[in-house]
Design a protein that fits this description.
The chain has eleven helices and twelve strands. The protein is of the alpha+beta class. The radius of gyration is 43 Å and the shape is rod-shaped. The protein binds 3,4-dihydroxyphenylalanine. 3,4-dihydroxyphenylalanine binds next to strand 9 and strand 10.
């Protein structure tokens, strides 16, 4: 029995894998295993012999069984160690960050402005980016000889010989959407139209594609006062300031009469823009009372209705909201540039108008007198 014990404990200790171990189990304690056969022989023994051999065989069987299961888990541990060595993973390595997209700053600003005007009852109107020259120019009272119509400023669509369609352009402003909205909706109406516009212009402070937001309100008894209130509300909400002071500067747009460029009181100190206080004025948009010819082009009777309109350059205002002025142009004007962490913006400068650029304030009352009831 001692021989059996030594033989099997030795073999078990040397077993290379689970298969070898299972074979050993069968030949030792399996049904026809050596130890099982020995147990069968107990029946032929005398009671005295059996009393000694029985417990000894049982103990041997137990010992072999526990040696088998100890070896089995040792083999499993070894296999696991082996796997861990090859499938090693350094959990201290930095992760591979996934690049996450965000909404483009210009789109964010468009959404923001849209929400602000929505609170004042303006809905969003749209028009095509490839626009007929009638919508882009004629309907807006821009005469045939107007310099912006030349190819120097406007991208014209190529036309094959024999193509009799009216000339089309990449719209140079969002103002043609005014005409489309009036034709579609009639009066009264309040719309804004954000979108892309194109001009043949490319230098440090201009890109051939940029964004504008048009505003148009048509109603009875509208005046420049309504326009001014509306724009002040917008500026307060957009720049998140309590107070915003706007100044109307007499200007000329063919589609408005009278026309005004609108400046915002602000201060620039150490490259920081503060809106609502200070001695600087910054031009933010063009506006005016809709010209009667433009109302007519939109099928609205100028004898019955007035309108005000405005156009904001979105890229510029996005930079003002997000960016810091970090550079000056050749004339020494501050160029607020958006932070370098916003790709695509590094070269979009914005003019910081100097106080002396501006003409004396033209009083609001003056405009109202000019347009009359
Ligand atoms: N369309 C003008 C431009 O592109 C901006 C503009 C000025 C729009 C005055 C208006 C307005 O609606 O009333 O420069």
């Amino acid at each position: 029995m001692d021989d059996l014990r030594e033989k099997y404990l030795g073999l078990i200790a040397g077993a290379a894998d689970e298969t070898a171990l299972e074979e050993l189990r069968v030949s030792a304690v399996g049904k026809k295993g050596e130890i099982s056969l020995k147990m069968r022989e107990l029946g032929k023994m005398t009671p005295e012999e059996r009393q000694i051999a029985g417990p000894a065989l049982n103990a041997l069987k137990d010992e072999i069984n526990s040696a088998l299961s100890a070896k089995k888990s040792a083999l499993a541990d070894a296999a696991l160690d082996e796997r861990l060595k090859t499938e090693w993973l350094d959990v201290t390595l930095p992760g591979r960050p996934r690049r996450q997209g965000t909404i483009h700053p210009v789109s964010q600003v468009m959404e923001e402005i849209t929400a602000i005007f929505a609170d004042m009852g303006f809905s969003v109107a749209e028009g095509p980016q490839i626009e007929s020259d009638w919508y882009n120019f004629d309907a807006l009272n821009i005469p045939a000889e107007h310099p912006t119509r030349t190819e120097m400023d406007t991208f014209y669509m190529a036309q094959k010989p024999g193509d009799n369609r009216p000339p089309h352009v990449l719209r140079t402003h969002t103002s043609p959407v005014q005409i489309r909205a009036m034709q579609d909706q009639g009066a009264p109406l309040r719309v804004i139209a954000p979108g892309r516009v194109y001009r043949s212009d490319y230098d440090q402070t201009h890109t051939p594609m940029f964004h504008q937001l048009e505003g148009l309100a048509v109603d009875r008894d509208l005046s420049m006062a309504n326009l001014k209130w509306c724009l002040e509300e917008f500026v307060r909400a957009f720049f998140e300031v309590e107070q915003a002071e706007l100044r109307f500067r007499a200007s000329h747009f063919p589609f408005t009469e009278p026309s005004a460029e609108v400046d915002l009181r602000c201060s620039w100190s150490q490259g920081q823009l503060k809106v609502g206080e200070g001695d600087d004025w910054m031009e933010i948009l063009g506006s005016g009372m809709v010209h009667p010819n433009v109302l007519e082009a939109g099928n609205i009777d100028p004898g019955q209705w007035q309108g005000f309109a405005f156009g904001i350059g979105i890229d510029r205002i996005a930079i003002l909201q997000h960016g810091d002025p970090v550079d000056a142009d050749s004339e020494g004007e501050a160029l607020p540039l958006i932070g370098v962490d916003v790709p695509g913006f590094q070269n979009l400068g914005v003019h910081h108008a100097r106080a002396e650029d501006f003409h004396p304030i033209v009083a609001l009352a003056h405009f109202q007198l000019a347009i009359g009831p």
